[in-house]
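DATA SHEET
Item: assembly model
Revision: 1
Owner: S.N.
Input lines:
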Amino acid sequence: MNSLIRVFAILHKELLQLSRDRLTFGMIVGIPLIQLMMFGYAINTDVRGLPSAYVDEAESNLSREYLADIGASQVVKLVERVESPQALEALFDAGAISIGLVIPADFDRRVIAGNRPPAQILVDGSDSIIYGVAGQLAALTPRFDSRSQSRVEPRAELRNYYNSNRRTAVNIVPGLVGVILTMTMVLFTAVAIVRERERGNLELLINTPIRTWELMLGKIAPYVVIGLIQLSLVLMLGQLVFDVPLQGSRVDLLLASSLFISANLALGLLVSTVAQTQFQAMQMTFFFFLPSILLSGFMFPFAGMPKVAQGIAELLPLTHYNRLIRGILLRGADLSSLRAELLALLAFLVVALLLAIRRFSKRLD
Amino acid sequence: MSTPAASNQQDRIAIEASGLTMRFGELTAVNDVDLSIERGSIYGFLGPNGSGKSTTLRMLCGLLNPTAGEARVLGLDSRRQSEALKQRIGYMTQRFSLYEDLTVRENMQFISEVYAISRRDRKARIDELLSEYRLVDRANQKAGTMSGGQRQRLALACAILHKPEILLLDEPTSAVDPQNRRDFWEGLFELAEQGTTILVSTHYMDEATRCHRLAILDRGVKVADGSPKELGEGIDSLVIEVLAENPNRVRLSLIDEPAISSITQLGVRLRILMAKSQFSSEEANGFVKEKLSSHGISAEVDVVTPDLEDVFVTVTRPQKSNASDGAISS
């Protein structure tokens, strides 16, 4: 009986403490609600609306019909018509499209003859989900005449533009770099200031002449190096074990990664100025981490997500970094074609850092 | 301000505050406190927990912005020039706030860098303080593994590493045994002799007695200030000491007397306070003796000089009380 009273005493105390810790309480309700709504809509392996471009050298009724059929499938969204396959490749390199359609001048003849693939579908095969979708598209046959049912149905030729062996690791490893960096970097600095507050060190620090930005910079700098070490480790292993290529320039990679790491560290600092305890800081980090994994294009193709989810994803540094690192590693893209992503990371870094500095006060009130 | 005398006056005063007030919502933690603290003196803030000592210290070093009033510290406005002040003041927090996972020397190294002490002077200054505060043997020990006294010496060494003109100590000896406390105070006197102005908050009477001057705070209000001697002479209290076999009987027999403002028991002795403005020493002595004999109690009754605790009881508790709760320990 006394045991029961004591168990109840602990239980009662826990509930009291929990009800006072508003942030934790908010998380208990907020995490399931927000995350469920977010992912319920976003996570959808039925890919739709992949941005695509096409070259139509035939310009016949048949080719237009074929394009209309492809568009009607809703799997792709034909955003642009270009003049040559070379222009298509440029769009691939910039990461603007994931599927490209080439209709040759002799399209009609090929369809009628039925012995050669009438069209070519180029696909950015670095994402296996997108590759699968392209396979379905290729099965869509051009129907030039309803009477000729007996003929062997011509299929479009599928050409894998990147990752020609279709190995998942090639796509996963670069994505993993970003995921690992997000997890570790945000957490490093998220607990950094909270820990000093909990241990009383902060009261000492704010009594010294140290300035807020000096404190913040000093907290971030060592972890940038640690982040770059993590990056090198993952990529080295990726190259040794999984044969993940490094097509682009190392300097570009280093630059993009440093920016991404800094953005995450700045976010961590911001968390650190909001959270009161290390536990709260950790909760907030995970609240941020989950959408980063699921919406950034690491798990599911970004292009296939609904607009709202894409909007949220654009706010996450990992989304931009995934585009950067995949572009640099797999496509050998150079930074000038990925400038928008760099700018997004830079903007995130600046905003997070300014907010953190603003929120951190050297006074106690 | 332009006359030499006036600037002399300015130089002599390290801290000047007027009308300092701090409100946290409904609560007025510090209410209209005026201060004038001389350079090179040890100035104490005495008061029970929650009387506004820490809040006052924090306003003086710019950690808190006063709701009203202002303070000039070393001629600087504590509100607007707090960052410039930080290089010139040292602050020792109530709780040990150095890094427990760093060694003694690493902690000192860190602090010396934060204060941007030149690389040339750094090592010499650290070595000097290590030997002065008997930490040479501990230099490579982690701060977290040291005793309360050692930690406190380290905290003080770090607080004065940059040779501050003003040193603020917030209840510095709460985690320290009496021997270490004595050593600690000797260190403070040395610093004061070298010209450092020291502000210390405490709820220990014996510590307060060591201060050159002190202010007694009660619920945010400064109820008295002066040197310990002046304070003793200045209060409206006569102290009658009663030595009896059964002090509790003595107390019970006197407790309802309106003329007696306070009774405090110290072992077998009782200290009885009566208003000096209403009784002469002889009258008070006679009054107590008479009351006791009428209750059939034989006891030794003497008029003694007030000590700081009597001052404290008089200025903070105008109403009668037994002064037996634990707010103040001696």
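QC remark: The first helix of chain A runs from residue 2 to 20.
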